[in-house]
Amino acid sequence: GPIENDVTPQQVEPIQIWPQKELVKAYRFLAINKKLGLSGRPDRPVGCIGTCKIYRILGKTVVCYPIVFDLSDFYLSQDVMLLIDDIKNALQFIKQCWKMPGRPLFLALIREDNIKGSRFNPILDMLASFKKGSIGGVKVHVDRLQFKSFEELELPKHSKVKRQTSTPNVSDLEQQPEIDIEEWINKSTVEILQKFYDCDCLASQAQLAKNLKDELERIYRRAGSRKLWSVVRLAASLLTKLVDSLAPSITSVLVHGKQVTLGLFGHEEIVISNPLSPGVIKDIIYSKCSPHGEREAVLQQELVIHIGWIISNNPELFSGMLKIRIGWIVQAMKHELKIRAGDLPPQDIYQLSPSDVKQLLLDVLQPQQTGRSWLNKRQIDGSLNRTPLGFYDRVWQILERTSNGIMVGGKHLPQQPTLSDMTMYEMNFSLLVEDTLKNIVLPDVFYSLQMMSSNTMNCVQLLMVVAIILERNPELEFQEPVDLDRLVKDAFADFQKDCSRLEGSGKQENMDAFYNTPALGKRSTSSYLTKAVMIQLLQGEVKPIKDDPCSVS
């Protein structure tokens, strides 16, 4: 088990250095009790707090390097800037969460591949910060360890299980390739492909396919070393690569009360509301993403990893987002690149390095972005599916005052049995509203519903007017379904009349000018929407109420 960290490295030398996955194997055998039905610790990674401890295992002194230094087949490990960022984040986390006596031990493992070419200077700068005693605002003390080479754990051996064999129903000759394997190892890809399609022998095709896969692996590694990230992502997707810690990252989102959807924007999405195994998640990603874009499958894996970390450290960035729609977030990031490019062609998101993708994600998630037009703000918020505080409560209150429910994008949210079957604050109601809103294709149209239903940041004036009218005039209620599309069109028509009267501009179908106006103030979107709502309310019948001082008997 772990020993006190207030000893010096020299007191416990020589030390064995293990990857954290070997510590997982050791922990797996703790607390196993067949009588109590205890199976030991699950095969989950050991976090950076666990790897900061010094262990005695089978009489040996062991330290582990954090999971950020694990060798990975996924290309994120090839971005040294992302590695440095992960190191800084891990140190910040350790600084905040370390509660044991003594100092935590953070083992930094620098491999030869980390310091090749252009990667050398960033790593050198990081090591210089270590030497100075501070990195990312965390004070550190650098020391060297005397260690032995890595040794495998001597774990208990399980009894061998006799396995049944399946006897083939074909001759051995039919299972042998008809090609000379050695002859085709160095053939060109074109020749291998031609032979693959020409031959009928399945064994030969299997061997040729392996050669093609090996060639693709070489392309994957070479593109990574040259930082050709679009090529890397394409090769990784064709090889169906899976990033480490994908399942724990999704679980991190779930424990914060959010759901995750995987799939492309505008196509079928799969909602994840319970923890899933990595294999199941892999099947979902590749089945829903690859048919519409090969590189999307691995890009969404990147985002899941980043989002899992961000929501654990900055959950406020996801406020108002009931579902974390990965495909929609990709759409928001692409739109952000268009905004930055102006009149020039935007950057291709697939060509960005993983560290740049992470920074772009953080920029998009910022609730207050300066320098954006109102149109761009609405489009970004719409793509993120972000709703304001108390949004679903406001929708409930609107439903209480409209017997025919709410219409949006051709989808009807009825008053009954919604109000009788649910409560205002339960998750099922919020999910029902969210499911209704997903019928809106355009993010800026989605935003108009937010303005009508309590947008604290952009629609305070509109909602206050509607709330005051309904509160002070209980005789008023919506007689017809609250058709959001119609209200937006009415508000837009009124906006066009003012533009024609005041600016002399002609009628136009494009609503960009309308959505590019401020949310509040004179001739704002709130004022036009408020007027549209008022007109619809006043067109309804006024029902008499008891003890009305204005009524004449």
Automatic annotation (TrEMBL):
Its membrane topology: Lipid-anchor
Keyword Ribosomal protein found: no
InterPro entries hit by this protein: GH15-like (IPR011613), KPBA/B_C (IPR045583), PHK_A/B_su (IPR008734)
Family per similarity comment: Belongs to the phosphorylase b kinase regulatory chain family.
One GO biological process term: glycogen metabolic process
Keywords, comma-separated and alphabetical: Calmodulin-binding, Carbohydrate metabolism, Cell membrane, Glycogen metabolism, Lipoprotein, Membrane, Prenylation
Gene Ontology MF term list: calmodulin binding
GO-annotated cellular components: phosphorylase kinase complex; plasma membrane
Primary location recorded for the protein, binned into one broad class: membrane
Domain GH15-like: 94-328
Keyword Chaperone applies: no
Subcellular location, record wording: Cell membrane
Protein's pathway: Glycan biosynthesis; glycogen metabolism
Protein name (Swiss-Prot/TrEMBL): Phosphorylase b kinase regulatory subunit
Source taxon at top rank: Eukaryota
Domain Phosphorylase b kinase regulatory subunit alpha/beta C-terminal residues, every copy: 368-532
Protein role: Phosphorylase b kinase catalyzes the phosphorylation of serine in certain substrates, including troponin I.
